[in-house]
Amino acid sequence: MEEGPKRFNFPLVEGKLSEMQLEQFYGKMKDVVVNVEIHAKFPDTDHFVYDCEGAGVFISPKGHVLTLLGVLLDPEGHISKKIRVITNKGNTYQMKVMSAREDLGLAVLGLGEEVYPIEFPYASICTDELKIGEEVYPIGHPGYLDFSFPVGHISFPCREYDELSKSLSNDLMEWDLLKDRLNSRCGDVGARFICHVDDLSCLSGLSGSTCFVMVNNVHGGGRDGSMGMPFFNNRGEIIGMYFLLAYDQCYGIHAKTLSSMMSGIEI
User: Gene3D superfamilies, alphabetically (predicted)?
Assistant: First the structure.
């Protein structure tokens, strides 16, 4: 059985992949990433359409896909009854939810239709400790630009839920006060500050045990479509999954939490 691109053993150049290695890396790893689409009602009409909500990653040769639970929710907040994934090569597969955990913000999809025996390329979840400054190799759809390859690095290896939630909540309160003061002076805050924090409601319902890896330079200049984008290390292992953007930093659900999602699931 041909094994998916689980691990690379490239000789590193000053701790980074060389230009040629990056090309080889992307050529392999783009095949383990998918576009996740849900079937939802088009706004202000009675028509239902498939719409891209984010990314996912193959985690088994049987075609199981790991993604964010939020990617699967329709406008009313329910898991869509019709889900499909599209590969980089254009192959489309109907999927069903095998497991969903609101406390971790994650879901695992399995093939929802009978297909001919296929061995899917897949990636494994990293079990090593992450290190600050490590390069990160995400592949996803930031700004709905399919299969983009922004390269960044780890700003902080592991932020726990309580620390992140408290910090962002405090920052937002301070930012609101600052906006009020500036609005009273000059009217246009946007002209003086460029700042973005995703809707923090995505943090509600998560377990206090949820961990995040903090990275930068990986959102590719756009948030829409980024959800569920896997972060890879230079060996092709998953170290995180894009979850939240705050200012110029992105937070992915940490490999530790991804691994806990997989416990008890037969793939």
Answer: 2.40.10.120
